[in-house]
TrEMBL record:
Belongs to the GbsR family. The keyword Transcription applies. Residues 33-80 form the HTH marR-type domain. GO terms for molecular function: DNA binding; DNA-binding transcription factor activity. CDD domains: HTH_ARSR. Keywords: DNA-binding, Transcription, Transcription regulation. Pfam families: MarR_2. It comes from Pseudoalteromonas porphyrae. This is HTH-type transcriptional regulator.
Amino acid sequence: MTLSDKNYAFVMHCGEMGSRWGFNRTIGQMCGLLIITKEPMTANEIADGLSISRGNVSMGIKELQSWRLIKVQHIPGDRKEYYAPAGTIWDMANRVFEERKKREIDPTLSLLRDNLIEPATNDDEKFAQQQMHEIHDLLETVTKWSAELQRLSPEQLQSLMKLGSGIGKVLDFKDKILKKQ
């Protein structure tokens, strides 16, 4: 398989972004390749397309499956397994968010709850607990808000995002009205 320059640049960029999304470069490249390839691919095709080892592809497939980003497809009469993205781009973005929440936010909230249960024994601990409480409240708010966003359809999400700075203007207007009262 030979990628065009544009497609190659996209796949390489996905690899660079992989670490920011929570997985390594090769996993990001594999995900990018599968997203832009029209037909499902075998592990050997993925390896050839990215010039990586078959073993590296096998490990990457397991990782992408653990993130629920790819699915296995079978072609009648062919014993090979083929891999394709598991859903739309929006579905995959939601899954990345869900997985990152499970791996990063949930353990942090758990630690914060454990630390906030015990009463502070001195002023330093009291200050630290106040800060941890603010972090906890922020993460809880973001978690609840993101759960609401995930319930929206892609069309509703796009409409919400297009509002963009308009939301800030509405909130500024609300604050001005409240100050006059």
